[in-house]
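pinned: reference chain
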Amino acid sequence: MAVFFLTTMNHNLATLLAMNPILTVARGFWWQPFTYMFAHSGMRHLLFNMMGLFFFGTQVERELGSYEFLLFYLLTGVLAGFFSLAMYWFTGTYMVFLLGASGAVFAVLLAFATFYPNAQIFIFGLIPVRASMLVVGYTLIELFSHSRGGSNVAHMTHLAGFGFAYLYFVIRLRISPWQRFFR
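pinned: its structure tokens
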């Protein structure tokens, strides 16, 4: 929240914290793959990220413990940032400014679904969906949305959050999300 208010008052600070391929690679602003997670484009963007973190993150933190949760959250967010940076750099998309915690929040959603695959999540407060099917559905939506292009949403960063969370569970925790989703 503090970073949001500081960047609202000083837009130059938002430019320094958001991840931009030219600034990160060519000018050496190597902190950006970390700080982009703390800068947001508006109150609604911040609110949706924090709601996801609150609703899913509290349960995941109970399962992992505070230290492991913090490591998981920051590592998946930073790796999603580096993945996006590489994609933007190698595709010549230099003028993008990536901001928001969505990559890490998507990782937390995958973690929640791994621990509680049968938990019912109510879409719009009405439509019950199993947590594991929500992750599968979001994956399909993000792939479809990315293929259509033309939006200001970093769909590949979201997918990278899922991907790095999956790898974290398999490598560090020796848990297969896929097996938990479909047992």
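why pinned: The CA atoms of residues 18 and 36 lie 4 Å apart. The chain has a mean pLDDT of 90.
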